[in-house]
Amino acid sequence: MGSLLSSFGLNCGKEEVNEEERHIRANDRAFNLSRHYANNAIKTSKYNIFTFLPLNLFEQLQRLANAYFIFLLILQLIPQISSLSWFTTVVPLVLVLSITAAKDGTDDYNRHKSDKQVNNREVEVLIDGQLKKEKWMNVQVGDIIKLETDEFVTADLLLLSSSEPLNLVYVETAELDGETNLKVKQALTVTGEIGDSIENLAAFDGEVHCEPPNNHLDKFKGTLTLNGEVHSLDNDKILLRGCTLRNTEWCFGMVIFGGPDTKLMQNSGKTKFKRTSVDHLMNLLVLCIIGMLALLCTVLAIGNTIWETTEGSSFTVFLPSTDSSDPVLSGFLTFWSYVIILNTVVPISLYVSVEMIRLGNSFYINWDRKMYYPRKDTPAQARTTTLNEELGQIKYIFSDKTGTLTQNIMTFNRCSINGKSYGEVFDFSGQRMEITEKTEKVDFSWNPLADPKFAFHDHSLVETVKLGTPEVHAFFRLLALCHTVMPEEKKDGQLAYQAQSPDEGALVLAARNFGFVFRERTPESISVVEMGEHTTYELLAVLDFNNVRKRMSVIVRNPEGKLYLYCKGADTIIYERLHPSCTKLMEVTSEHLSEYAGEGLRTLALAYKEIDEGYFEEWRHRHYVASTAMDNREEQLDAVYEEIEKDLQLLGATAVEDKLQDGVPQTIEQLAKADIKIWVLTGDKQETAENIGYSCNLLREEMAEVFIVASNSPEEVREELRNARKKMNPRSGDEPTFIKSGILGKRSQVMQEEETDGEYAMVINGHSLAFALQKDMEMEFLRTACMCQTVICCRVTPLQKAQVVELVKKHKKVVTLAIGDGANDVSMIKAAHIGVGISGQEGMQAVLSSDFSFAQFRYLQRLLLVHGRWSYLRMCKFLRYFFYKNFTFTFVHFWYGFFCGFSAQTVYDQWFITLYNLVYTALPVLALALFDQDVNDRWSFQYPQLYSPGQLNMYFNKKVFLRILLQSCYCSLILFFIPYACVHDTVRDDGKDIADYQSFALLAQTSLLITVNIQMALDTYYWTAVNHFFLWGSMSVYFAVTFTMYSNGMFLIFTSSFPFIGTARNSLNQPNMWLTMFLSTMLCTLPVVAYRFLFIQLYPTINDKVRHKARQAKAAPPPTPRRFTRRRISTRRSGYAFSHARGYGDLVTSGRFLLRPKRTRPALFPVVDSPVTSTTPQTYRTITEEDESRSPTSE
Amino acid sequence: MKNEGEMANRPDNTAFTQQRLPAWQPVLSAGIVIPGFVLIGLAFIGIGVALFVTSQKIQVLETDYTGAEQGSPCYDCRDTSVPCVCRVNFSLSKLFEGPVFFYYGLSNYFQNYRQYGSSRDDDQLSGYTSAFTSPSETCAPYQYNSQKKPIVPCGSVANSMFNDSFKLYHVVNGQPRPVPLDGKGIAWWTDYNIKYRNPTVNGTLASAFADTVKPINWPRPAYDLDTTDPSNNGFQNQDFIVWMRRAALPNFRKLYRRITEGDYANGLPAGNYTLEITYNYPVLAFDGRKKVVFSNVSWMGGKNQFLGIAYLVIGSLCIVMSVVMLIVYAKYKFPEDEL
């Protein structure tokens, strides 16, 4: 019903006032009120106590399903047509309406509560020359309000003044766009001068003209007229509702947009509704069923016309019917009568049940302890409750890298100093030990400035530092000096670093712990505490990093007055610039580097040199010239840098681990086994992405080939793609083959899967991707990419991420899933069929737009292989059974039509018809859809292949539907004709006639109910107590209700409603009846058993095999998943690969950072006191089932 | 890092939330299915044999007396506008074991026609006098007569009540000797005692029917249905109740009388019989047929060849199927290790 629920979602209540321009006067409530702008009260609720019932009913009745019920009800009120009593429709309708109303009511109550809470927040408002506490909802446009640090911004404000120099204000916009880094806003100087003087503020009479309310978060256009002068206003001067004030003692602002006009509110409530493929199929099927219904009714109506002509007209002796004069009219009326009777083929209660099942299965996700992340106290969350079964059909996963596959945490793991490698732990026999959480950490307590969260395990390095070995000191001094990190002193005196890239932060942090503490920087100096001694270096130049140079250097003057150049960079680059005297050291270090790279670590080589004062002065001059050159400044600077960075002395190398999230390689291996293709879409550089690809098992050494597409022209890209495809499948034709689309012909072309000879992967860079995504090449790209097991796209923009997803969605008939953690993943999360957000990392934006969220990538395998698979299985079983039971139920009427003069006489008792779907068969199928599992979660992990039937849509498709239709036809024939044949010419054991209508109805309906319940039993794989209870309970309830309704008491009270009095008592004591029921139920179910048994023997599915295996292994639990051995990677992938962009060099030297952060910096960059400080480094650990299942007992 | 202790959001560890509910997981294995089919097959055959044998023992005698064909005894009575009596003779070569049940049967008669079936008023039939003055709408056109007087009992079902009557004579030594027919207890107990109630009015039953008219086709009003037995009148008339329990199928028979008394308590002895039929009920207009049926019953009810044969056939099919499945299982038993 989701689709139906949504269609009347949020578009109510908002009056569109066409506002051309907003004109506000500060401190002039009278004027502002006259313009009728919305005040700051918000209302997200839809109803109040009085409007709830009428409005909600009205909304509900607009839904297709309910409208259908109403239509039926109207039909039933026409006496000529009414073939069923009104209650058969009213009872389910009321039930459905009240369930939905209850749900809507609770939702709205919660909205009321949150509205009230928000509206009643207090803020200081300047009223009549003084600050008064006022509730948010009473704040008017034009009011001047005072905000203090860590307060939420009340409304969209024009910033007037602030406590900070230059009228700056820092805000966090997490609630708006999910970014947790601070943004800076700056007030106009004219208003900033007012400061916090209340008199001046009260006298402030500026007039604002600006754009009407809109939802562009990053745009604002307006003017401020103050004392006759016009100042232009832009987004920089606006504080938006939803932001939080940070690091700013106070600020004053004037309300521009209030409540519903704020950009936050204007942006809310526009969620694109996603529907599952099962939904689409269901809609199609419902259409088919309606067609079928029409067909059946037409057949019966024609039958009626013929019957009336030939028989009915002469039967008038006993039935002088008013319309018998016109058989055609009678046929017409019969058509509608049969529409009423046969309406149960269009399973309207289906939508309600489907919603309930999805909801239930969503709860399982929320409840799953194995997807709960204790470190962050984050459980998994199903934010959309309507997509569960789609989780069992995923074919493509689009993943972000940073924060999703990796933790975005760099840890300083190893280093090589002067030819000696540190960082590994050996036991007494000299054997290398695996580092686990339990391994003893180095004690840094000797260093008061050490960060307690930093972990290192090799004691020898500390000893060496303490001994004062000069090379080791130089090594860490370099790390403490050569970087663009900015320090931040927290209130409690804690030192925190703000690093542009986390790996740089990791290196500085390492230096800090080893006694070289970077304390402070100014544009001209760097203060370091070296082994407890305060030392200040004069910073003479920063030779910044860029992609070509792949290194950065600083030139400093130490307290002794000597000049040094410190350089770190990619090993190959540094090696080219070393002094020949280092050759020997170079060889040793090279070995170490290879070793580090083999472990998937990111390496850097470090070098230094002493510089001659005179040479430096000369160089400095040239540097100045280059840096002020108008043309080719970059090239000139590079050349100047090149000059001085030579003849370096090698110090050593560092190895930083870009920590993968726990269990990523295993998860990817599992998903690959489940035949899911994984595409990584990352903003990173190609090298970085490749590195990660190898370390998390996406790219494997045993792959036949990894294609790299990195060309700069469309032709080359096309050529590369084509070559790659030919290599994968030489038989692949030039033109893609398309699958003919179905009857309802979607316009898009659906591409066929193509075979490959082995496993391939493709890495494509940003440039090439841009070409590949162009209209004329996208098919070429898609074809090639889809033949690869893995695709890695580097340097992808958020827009391209969405484009890639859309491309696959459009031309492949597959279900896609996008997973990411940051604001840049939002577009792809929204575009994919299923969006998954990693919660707890970079802000909330990705989570907010996702359908499912959890804290760790590794939970994805549980989400898909267990929850998704089960959800899909359950949903399909549910649908199959649901259609089966309704068809069987309904078709019996059709057959009966031929024997009752097509008069729309029902076979069953009307109460049975009313209660069949609601009571007698509702719960067992619900239990099936909530509890069934083919095999448990361990087996699901053991055999990821179990996932593939979902991808191929095998459990519920048109073919399956047709089979159900046939089965239902067969069963309904049996259920009508067996009782017919059994009773038509016989009598009861007391000689009374047996074939009266009421006994026959009871016979047919009891047989039907037993049959569908046996079918349910055959479909149930997993019999919990609940299944038993519901199944047996339903049967008992049926008999109890039947005996009650057919009892004397009910008849005496409601005479005309329960005419079946005594039928149960009189019929169910007949052996004949029971023998007939037994016969018909067996005839309905035995063929199913035989068919299934033979099918399992002849064509066993993977499912059958695993179930068989599971059964055999019942005594012994399945083998624990094999330990994942970390593979050593032979190729060396090292280099200064991790920096995302040009460094902070300019900023650091310019001193501008003191005023505001660099604006052009992409928002992605990790954050202030980098996660390094907030998480202990996690050592590599195999995630085993035992590990977690044991945890509950350890509580 | 948060303290490991505070795990406020940690989901509960119950078998239900973690989907670890203990469960029985049956599979359709050969060990269950094949023996199952054999057992069911044997059971079916057993039941089938019993049913078939029992059914064979039951005696049934059917005679069509519609009189559609020229030369048949009731041919002259086809025109029902005038009262007519016809006689059908038959002879029994051996004892027709008692108790013998006497049915009348109608063919091609659509008592299950929807509008026909709903054309009645259960309130009226339960004796609520309010429904006497204003019968239910569903009774139309037999709700009121042309003078706007309410018809009681209203509706098509009542109006079309079967009104042929029968007398059975045993011809002994050329002399017809009436066979006593028992008309009591031929309707369901619940119908006779609960569903159909005569109005409780002081005075005579007839006075309750004041201001109402009898159904158009009826010769006498409801309170005077049985002229011989005053207690068998009104709605609580056995024949009426039997008729009102409408048939599910267009060919049906209804119990008319039982032969349980006097010399015939043990059945109808061999000999010649004459059935005297008062022919009133018109069926030829719609190609209907009328018949009388004499039958006795067993534990399984009346004669029913179909049930026994069906059980036998299906039982045999089950056995055959189990053999097929056994062969398939032995031959194709799916490889266990290959996954």
UniProtKB/TrEMBL annotation, chain A:
<feature type="binding site">
    <location>
        <position position="568"/>
    </location>
    <ligand>
        <name>ATP</name>
    </ligand>
</feature>
<feature type="binding site">
    <location>
        <position position="400"/>
    </location>
    <ligand>
        <name>ATP</name>
    </ligand>
</feature>
<feature type="domain" description="P-type ATPase C-terminal">
    <location>
        <begin position="847"/>
        <end position="1101"/>
    </location>
</feature>
<feature type="binding site">
    <location>
        <position position="683"/>
    </location>
    <ligand>
        <name>ATP</name>
    </ligand>
</feature>
<keyword id="KW-0460">Magnesium</keyword>
<keyword id="KW-0472">Membrane</keyword>
<dbReference type="GO" id="GO:0005802">
    <property type="term" value="C:trans-Golgi network"/>
</dbReference>
<dbReference type="InterPro" id="IPR006539">
    <property type="entry name" value="P-type_ATPase_IV"/>
</dbReference>
<dbReference type="InterPro" id="IPR008250">
    <property type="entry name" value="ATPase_P-typ_transduc_dom_A_sf"/>
</dbReference>
<feature type="binding site">
    <location>
        <position position="545"/>
    </location>
    <ligand>
        <name>ATP</name>
    </ligand>
</feature>
<dbReference type="Pfam" id="PF16209">
    <property type="entry name" value="PhoLip_ATPase_N"/>
</dbReference>
<feature type="transmembrane region" description="Helical">
    <location>
        <begin position="1030"/>
        <end position="1054"/>
    </location>
</feature>
<comment type="similarity">
    <text>Belongs to the cation transport ATPase (P-type) (TC 3.A.3) family. Type IV subfamily.</text>
</comment>
<keyword id="KW-0813">Transport</keyword>
<dbReference type="GO" id="GO:0005524">
    <property type="term" value="F:ATP binding"/>
</dbReference>
<feature type="binding site">
    <location>
        <position position="402"/>
    </location>
    <ligand>
        <name>Mg(2+)</name>
    </ligand>
</feature>
<keyword id="KW-0547">Nucleotide-binding</keyword>
<dbReference type="GO" id="GO:0045332">
    <property type="term" value="P:phospholipid translocation"/>
</dbReference>
<feature type="transmembrane region" description="Helical">
    <location>
        <begin position="284"/>
        <end position="307"/>
    </location>
</feature>
<feature type="binding site">
    <location>
        <position position="824"/>
    </location>
    <ligand>
        <name>ATP</name>
    </ligand>
</feature>
<keyword id="KW-1133">Transmembrane helix</keyword>
<feature type="binding site">
    <location>
        <position position="682"/>
    </location>
    <ligand>
        <name>ATP</name>
    </ligand>
</feature>
Automatic annotation (TrEMBL), chain B:
<dbReference type="GO" id="GO:0045332">
    <property type="term" value="P:phospholipid translocation"/>
</dbReference>
<keyword id="KW-1133">Transmembrane helix</keyword>
<dbReference type="GO" id="GO:0005783">
    <property type="term" value="C:endoplasmic reticulum"/>
</dbReference>
<dbReference type="InterPro" id="IPR005045">
    <property type="entry name" value="CDC50/LEM3_fam"/>
</dbReference>
<protein>
    <recommendedName>
        <fullName>Cell cycle control protein</fullName>
    </recommendedName>
</protein>
<dbReference type="Pfam" id="PF03381">
    <property type="entry name" value="CDC50"/>
</dbReference>
<dbReference type="GO" id="GO:0005794">
    <property type="term" value="C:Golgi apparatus"/>
</dbReference>
<keyword id="KW-0472">Membrane</keyword>
<feature type="transmembrane region" description="Helical">
    <location>
        <begin position="309"/>
        <end position="330"/>
    </location>
</feature>
<comment type="similarity">
    <text>Belongs to the CDC50/LEM3 family.</text>
</comment>
<feature type="transmembrane region" description="Helical">
    <location>
        <begin position="27"/>
        <end position="53"/>
    </location>
</feature>
<dbReference type="GO" id="GO:0005886">
    <property type="term" value="C:plasma membrane"/>
</dbReference>
<keyword id="KW-0812">Transmembrane</keyword>
